[in-house]
Write a structure and sequence with these properties.
By secondary structure, the chain is an alpha+beta fold. It folds into 2 domains: 4-139, Bira Bifunctional Protein, Domain 2 (BirA Bifunctional Protein, domain 2, 2-Layer Sandwich), CATH 3.30.930; 162-253, Class II aaRS and biotin synthetases, domain 2 (Methane Monooxygenase Hydroxylase, Chain G, domain 1). It is 42% helix and 19% strand. The protein is built from 8 helices and 7 strands; from the N terminus they run αααβββββαββαααα. Strands 1, 2, 3, 4 and 5 form a 5-stranded antiparallel beta sheet that branches. A two-stranded antiparallel ribbon has the order 6-7. β6 and β7 form a beta hairpin. α6 (187-206) runs antiparallel to α7 (212-239).
Length: 254
Amino acid sequence: MITFQESILRLQSYWNAQGCALLQPIDLEVGAGTSHTATFLRAIGPEPVLKPSPTDILDLYLGSLRALGIDTLKNDIRFVEDNWENPTLGAWGLGWEVWMNGMEITQFTYFQQVGGLECRPITGEITYGLERLCMYLQNVDNVFDLVYTTWKDRGVDRVLRYGDVFHQNEVEQSRFNFERLMEAELALPAYEMVLKAGHTFNLLDARGAISVTERAAYIGRIRALSRSIAQSYYDSRERLGFPMLGAAAKKEAA
């Protein structure tokens, strides 16, 4: 069985073998991977991003599915017309949704325009729905049941699931829209707000906009917030029984 982590590594290895540079995700709020600077800005001008789009790009894509262990002859894989547009970015392209056995797994787009500028030459973009692909590969119906990784090859009988990594964050971020953060003991979204506060402080400090006295006061306030969040997170994990600890480690911690 291919784990979620292994699926990422296989795709990276596959596209590396095709001569692609592997860039890291952008650490900002974006609506989709298409908004990544490597996609949005690199699509403009002659520099490479699968550009010009390879004539065999569809075959390359199908090859990436085979690298994940998907038999493209035994599964019903369809390219369904679905042209893409992002009006706020002045971007649009021609393309398809890729369906496998009736479920969308990929968006395939030939960028025509980005930021209101024509793409010359046209850029090809492939965006995978990794969770959906892995749900098919692992034959599970709930994304939180996906096996993220295991250590069985190292003699450790333990499985880390997608839910172990992301479920608490999903619950807290969902509740964030309705309740106050720290009052509701939601440490993860509260920490993101502290990071934003820290970034704003750094900008003000770098521009000499705050005095020495104010600087110390702001640092103290942000540090106090950080400590309360750290304590809140620790308490929340303790209430859950530190779920990522193995049984032996739990006994030792107790």
